[in-house]
């Protein structure tokens, strides 16, 4: 029996479960979360949208290794929609018990550690694919496609922004995942490929202006996490690769001010009773929630050589028919496409990064099947 487990019933987990139920042929889909009521609500929403009982729910503790082992052993495939640090143990156990796992993104070091289990996964006949969401994930698959198409490619850059459709005070931003994760992107070292070498650079640097038709001026800057393992996958194929986040103008300067004033310190502060970072996160998660504000996802991936420049762009907005936000669609659906590619045999057993695992043509076709518009353009020089 083919059984799919969704580990985590948050926004992206529910979107991935819905997509797999709509386009997959699993005998059973189980949405699991530490908070069973949350999983139950998510499963009910999926069943209501599809008009049939296709998704069940379960209580699940990803920090309990024995419980993890028993749970994954009962499924043939799992999607990790967990906090970053919990994906590695889920994948490690998945390989042990013979359950394939895909995740929506994790830190690069544990992702590479899972890739080192490739032979073990092949022996078990299971596939594990890391960094399958939006960024890392979709943007790196687009980059892999353009690098293969661009004659003598030397430079590649991926831009991505999850934004409200209009800038909203005070930061021109609406939160669609945890503030702690946002701070991590803005404060952790950034992995890039430069002159053929893997390097780390400081976050929130290399600020540049960028324009999108129909959206207007934006700013882009280096952030952690979005490149995933792509610099390792692309090394030897291209000399330079980096990832940047896009925001409305002025956002980076405001966030740097908070950083420089110590609001992101993890050291306990006696007068606060907690760390400034924890307090900052708690306040901004409420202040920047804006649950009723429509969001959009902007993506631009550009690869250039001495003779040509190739580009892929997309602008995606929320879907009123299902209620899924643009962030849920691009993250949850992208991850589901990879899971379904494993199910259909498009991805072979072993441990891979998303950009090396899935055929970009298949990935793009599946995105278009879901109504996600992709624009391609190219400029020949000389």
Describe what this molecule looks like in 3D.
The protein is of the alpha/beta class and 382 residues long. It is globular and about 50 Å long. Helix content is 37%, strand content 26%. Helix 1 (11-23) crosses helix 12, helix 3 (65-72) packs across helix 4 (87-97) and helix 7 (138-149) packs across helix 14 (360-369). Strands 3-2-1-4-5-6-15 form a 7-stranded parallel sheet, sandwiched between helices. A 7-stranded mixed sheet has the order 10-11-12-7-13-14-16. It has a two-stranded antiparallel ribbon with strand order 8-9.
Descriptive labels:
16 strands; alpha/beta; seven-stranded mixed β-sheet; seven-stranded parallel β-sheet; 382 residues
Radius of gyration: 20 Å
**What does the average pLDDT come to?**
95
Outline: globular
Count the DSSP helices: 14
Largest sheet: 7 strands, parallel
**Which percent band covers the strand fraction?**
25-35%
- Based on secondary structure, the structural category is alpha/beta
Poorly predicted regions: none
The termini sit apart by: 57 Å
Helix and strand element order = EHEHEHEHEHHEHEHEEEEHEHHEEHEHHE
Total beta strands: 16
- Helix percent band: 25-40%
Spatially, the strands of the biggest sheet line up as 3-2-1-4-5-6-15
Describe the SSE topology.
Elements: E1 3-7, H1 11-23, E2 28-33, H2 36-50, E3 55-59, H3 65-72, E4 77-80, H4 87-97, E5 100-103, H5 108-115, H6 118-124, E6 127-130, H7 138-149, E7 155-164, H8 179-187, E8 190-194, E9 197-201, E10 208-212, E11 216-222, H9 230-234, E12 240-247, H10 251-260, H11 276-287, E13 295-304, E14 308-317, H12 326-343, E15 350-353, H13 354-357, H14 360-369, E16 375-380
